[in-house]
Specification:
hydrolase activity, four-stranded antiparallel β-sheet, about 40% strand, hydrolase, mainly beta, Methylamine Dehydrogenase, Chain H
């Protein structure tokens, strides 16, 4: 098996390759000293396309793509992700890039300020989805600690008309008509700081990440600021599944590539510490859709650690399970987290990881 691991950091994009299940070898840095907030590896065509959302400093954000695994990069002549002039809004960054599983050429982009964009040419140009931008609840959305960002895009695996997004801190929203109209879908997600009697609002939840599996697209797993949840009806209802975790606070949540009941989280101390629970790197896995969880740490450091992990810094695919830390270490597992290997260290702050079999 040949695999590609993409690591977006505060100071560049790193591409690591594995041949024949061997160790990962890192290419020289791409976009040195440039923040890479999102990356995806689009394997829907014969030649995989790597798409990266970068921040050129005072030149602003952009999206570039490579059809030769990073040997060369292309950038559109005009900003590929941009707000129409009539919105009076300027793009701050692209937080998410997500190819559609059902529509060839379609790539979704989640942005800050919170907005959804659609590309129909493989990520070369995008248009704003105005239905979400003009949603009647938007004036009441409040930025989270990371800003007013749309950080998660969940296209339905079989029905292109259905799509979900997560906005910090507005909650999870769902469309049944391809992004034309939207409704909040947060029933059952608790907001503990609200007064009693209003702790289950229609929107306003601090959703950190959402994931689903193509084999069971109606089932969603969600990491909230105050809990871990599962939905079996694409967000109509949510059930808490975090009671057996040492902490239900964290940022990423991912699903095993071929087991829709197997999900992974990375619990953190929920106070302002926000370091790993017990000050040890531990990934927790459920194999029964959240009924039980088990800590996995073999091969991870034994000494105390205080570095955190961001919402897109963990990923799962047929290539394996990976996570990157804020102090620039990247770990990988080929056996569903049972054991871990150090892939890289001394990198800049890791924002995102993505992996694919080539």
């Amino acid at each position: 098996m040949d695999a590609l691991l993409a690591i977006g950091t505060r100071k560049g994009l790193f591409l690591a390759r594995s041949s024949g299940n061997g160790p990962y070898k890192m290419d020289p840095v791409h976009f040195a000293n440039v923040a890479v907030h999102a990356v995806t590896i689009d394997t829907r065509t014969e030649r995989p396309r790597v798409i990266a959302a970068i921040e050129w400093g005072h030149f602003g954000p952009s999206v570039l793509w490579s059809d030769d695994l990073g040997a060369t990069w292309q950038e559109a002549e005009r900003p590929p992700v941009a707000f129409p002039e009539q919105t009076g809004t300027t793009l701050e960054k692209v937080w998410q890039l997500q190819p559609s599983p059902t529509e060839p050429g379609v790539v979704w982009a989640g942005a800050e300020p919170a907005a959804l964009f659609r590309s129909e040419d493989g990520g070369q140009s995008f248009r704003l989805m105005e239905g979400l931008w003009d949603h009647p609840t938007r004036p009441q959305w409040v930025p989270g600690g990371g800003g007013m960002c749309l950080h998660t895009v969940i296209p339905h695996a079989t029905d292109p008309a259905r799509i979900g997004v997560a906005v910090s801190t507005a909650g999870f929203f769902r469309s049944e008509d391809g992004g034309g109209t939207w409704e909040p879908a947060n029933r059952g997600i608790k907001v503990p700081f609200n007064p009693e009697g209003s702790q289950y609002p229609d929107f306003g939840q601090c959703v950190h990440k959402v994931a689903n599996h193509p084999a069971r697209p109606e089932r969603l797993f969600l990491q909230h600021h105050w809990g871990v949840y599962r939905s079996d009806d694409f967000g109509t209802n949510w059930t808490s599944i975090g009671d057996n975790l040492p902490s239900d606070f964290g940022f990423p949540i991912v699903i095993n590539h071929d087991k829709p009941d197997t999900a992974f989280v990375f619990p953190l101390h929920g106070d302002m510490d926000r370091s790993p629970v017990g000050h040890r790197y531990q990934v927790f896995r459920t194999d029964d859709a959240g009924d039980t969880w088990r800590a996995l740490a073999q091969g991870l450091p034994d000494e105390p650690v205080y570095s955190s992990i961001l919402r897109d810094a963990m990923t799962a695919s047929a290539a394996g399970l990976f996570f990157g830390t804020r102090d620039g270490e990247v770990y990988g597992s080929a056996d569903e987290g049972e054991s871990w290997d150090l892939i890289a260290r001394h990198l800049p702050d890791v924002f995102t990881t993505r992996a694919a079999v080539l």
